[in-house]
Amino acid sequence: MRPSSTYRVQVRPEFPLSSTAEIADYLADLGVSHLYSAPLLSAAPESQHGYDVVDHSRVSPALGGADGLAALKSALDEANLGLVVDIVPNHAGVAAAAENPTWWDVLKNGQKSEFSGFYDVDWSRGRILLPVLADTADALDDLRIEDGELRYFDKRYPIADGTGDGTPREVHDRQHYELINWTRGDSEINYRRFFAITDLAGLRVEDPDVFAATHAEILRWYNEGLAQGIRVDHPDGLRDPGEYFDRLRDAAPDAWIVVEKILEPGERLPAWPVAGTTGYDAMAQVNGVFVDPGTEAFFDTLDHHLTGATTSWQDLVHDAKLHVATNVLAAELARLAALVPEIEAAPKALAELAACFPVYRSYLPAGSRDLATARSEAGRRRPQMITVLDQLTARLRNPADELAIRFQQFTGAVMAKGVEDNAFYRWTRFVARNEVGNDPCKFGVTIDEFHHYAEQRLTDWPDTMTALATHDTKRGEDVRARLAVLSEVPGDWTEVVRRWVRFAPLPDPALAHLLWQVAVGAWPISRERLQAYAVKAAREAGTGTNWLSPDERFETALRQMVDRIYDDPALHREIADFASSIAPPGWSNSLGQKLVQLTMPGVPDVYQGTELWDHSLVDPDNRRPVDFGARRELLGRIDDGWLPPVDETGAAKLLVTSRVLRLRRQRPELFAGYRPVFADGRVPEHVLAFDRGGVVAVATRLPVGLSRHGGWGDTTLSLDGHSWTEVFTNTSYGGSRLAVAELLHTYPVALLVKE
């Protein structure tokens, strides 16, 4: 069942299933066809996201359990809404061992456990290594035996039958697990994990029994008609994603299935039996078409001036990925190298290949060209390793080779940690483009490029999801829309940021440039939110401080810089004034990119709260509570005939969102095609328009430049001579040529429906 659109809700203990049920009628009024929920299965205690499932057999009690899900179903049925559920096949939560019955049994009984095949454990290393101890020589002295369990502070572990006599240390030494120093996790852990998170253990869903056990509850929802769609988290971690999707499709033949697959620019989604991706590829194109591609050189010059260096994005990515491969994921690298013990240099060569891999992963036999690209680049960077690289590549291209299988799982984690969680925070010339699924070197997207992407999407993946924000985006959609304005005012931005970095200096100039961009992009933003973001960004960048060993001296300087923004009246006023100057064209960009995303080929998703302006930053900032009452009240006023102005309330965005979503739900036949519509006259480059087969979307591009040209002038759109109704203002138009100035008099966007 293909949705007409979805609305993402972060169901969590503070906003459980009962609260979600209460907004079903609002979502129906908004115009969506399906609620798109965060994971609902039982997760680790106090989990705020649900991706750390501990029990696949039940709905999370913290969310309301089975009764809460039943209440949600009743509310959705009454509102005539469907449900898309988020599932997590790659990993399970193991931080609270006692909460996960299968993990508990494995820890208690080792390889003799009936669940020993559930988790991807390297049993050749002996006991399961659990990196939880404090970084002290006598940490094991804090072990105690209590209620028949081995305990370390608040952590609980099972004791195997017949091994409970003696001191806590003696008991510990007899178990199928070994508690080790937490700092040894990256280098010594012997179970596959999600990226570098030791609290998330990899599942072996390639085993049919494991698949059945971990999907039974989800598939019951599908079979009983509760859920019509499935969003699959992190398929790149799976041993064989293609085989997994074949099995999932067989189990849910009519489900709308989308996958959290991050495609690099130009990369094609494998021919899996799914509807498409969760929309990062669309996001990169939509954001990019509102950026002025002609000012890239200004930002290169500014970046060089601020940092004192010319940084190669390609070299930065390589070095960041190599560091991740050899340090953060050292345990995974060692497990790979153990498969080629005859090659002494295997660890270095495998790490180099992963650092040079151009996409997240291959799906052999598909993707062998990416392996060849990595081999070529690795040979260029490490010519002394060419012989070893050739030996390894011969095995890595064999889909049946265990080395090749695990290397494919490895490269995705290296890319994610090296690029998304490191390089994006270090290469900061223009952070509007530092987003998941995008190459920051691609400064902007031309109109012709956008039309090409859209036509290709309609042909290849017409039912894929499109998105502008997710819980994993680095900045909210309206922050990016406002930052796109900087590409139109590079001189103004250069002037103020050069003054600000002198007035409130930071030892890391690249990070400082990131923070100044974020400050004006998200303004007004509270001191607490900006402080929290600054610390997270600095630790992700890893240049002045990091997560493993925070540098208090650097972080003190960082906090002082942020404090100065709020405590110095002149600086505070100047930042506020600059943000105010770019806010109106930012609103135009926001409405434009929202209209384009909602009307382009694919199934549009609205991330919670983004029907009004949303200036969220990276997780957990983008999971903050949403005021649905205010949105409900504003939508009621709009439905009563109010045409909201384009101002700080964001109600104009709610108008655009609701009217497009309702039209897509009521008249899907209008969105079955795609044809570019080009403008004529003085400033045609400022119009992005396309016909979906009876409905024409029109958006303003580069509003500052448009203003400099004196407005639309004689710019016109050529239509087919029918009469048209503009949806947002309910105005009728006729004729084959339509004056853009008249069409966009009230709003910088328009939606024309053929009468």
UniProtKB/TrEMBL annotation:
InterPro entries: GH, GH13_cat_dom, Maltooligo_trehalose_synth_4, Trehalose_TreY. GO terms for biological process: alpha-glucan catabolic process; trehalose biosynthetic process. It comes from the Bacteria. Signal peptide: none annotated. Pfam families: Alpha-amylase. One of its GO terms (molecular function) is (1,4)-alpha-D-glucan 1-alpha-D-glucosylmutase activity. Residues 10-664 form the Glycosyl hydrolase family 13 catalytic domain. This is (1->4)-alpha-D-glucan 1-alpha-D-glucosylmutase. It comes from Actinoplanes philippinensis.
